[in-house]
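pasting for ref
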Amino acid sequence: MPPTNPNKPKVFVDADVLFAGSAAPSENGASLVILRMAEITLIDAVTSQQVIIEAERNLAAKLPQALSTFRLLVSRCLRVVLSPQPSELAQFANLADPKDVPILAAAVREECQWLVTFNIRHFQPGHPSVTVIRPGEFILRVRDLLTRIGPRTKA
């Protein structure tokens, strides 16, 4: 399990992103890039047991050949946390699609600033402490931040 660092952005990874990263045909897909960013410790990538179970079930049914890559990515890139208990979910009931409430609750509980998913509409209206974003948009934001810390010209 990768260590947590309070200075790194915390990113909650949803099952669809984990699926896409595990099944990526190249190293350039946004989902896999996010997981690689976690692997090289640029971000703290978090997910819940529920997400792992869902992604593994979907891969087993649709792309079983990607299961070994999935397991390697989980072990090297993600901090897997317990899924929220039913008692933790009530306060999030109207903030996301019912099946995704536990994902939002876990992201908030783990103090993730970002929840990366392809299913943005499932997390509406969302929670004010978490920005729900697609993988490609997250990569664009990271790229924008990196360009701001580039070389400075002397005045």
